[in-house]
């Protein structure tokens, strides 16, 4: 599934643990609910960037498009949930996003660059997780996740290209720093299943 996106595969530090994949299949309802939350948060992140950086024309254009797409995906997840009698409810967020964001530098433009790099990792990981789940899911969900791969990969590219554009210098070292953080978050065990959680904690 991911052979069409070699840059995305190279960007991520590791594949999703097989234990996480099995955990997801055992928690299909939670997968859908948290996925809906993820799409809503992704739209919110894009909107926040638009409000914060009003002088960045390319950012405004790409984040506007991204926010619309994420909200459409949110609506599509809700439709699937309704078809399967899954009630949308509040969930505590996983440690993934907060674990990345706690390393954001506080001065500009470093703050923007770090935020954009994190956005690239979130989108790339989402794409990878959908791809590894597709062969195992019910046809309705599998077809939907397959339809998301292209847009998630493009969102990854948009975030990364914006980071490179606004940094004005190479960002390789900063990307590597967040790659190591992401690897730890994805491979360390979690108590609660989420779209971006690590594998289940041993009983």
TrEMBL record:
Sample GO molecular function, one term: tRNA 2-(methylsulfanyl)-N(6)-isopentenyladenosine(37) hydroxylase activity
GO biological process: tRNA modification
Gene3D superfamilies in UniProt: 1.20.1260.10
InterPro entries xref list: Ferritin-like (IPR012347), Ferritin-like_SF (IPR009078), tRNA-Hydrxlase_MiaE (IPR010386)
Family annotation (Pfam families): MiaE (PF06175)
Protein name: tRNA-(MS[2]IO[6]A)-hydroxylase (MiaE)
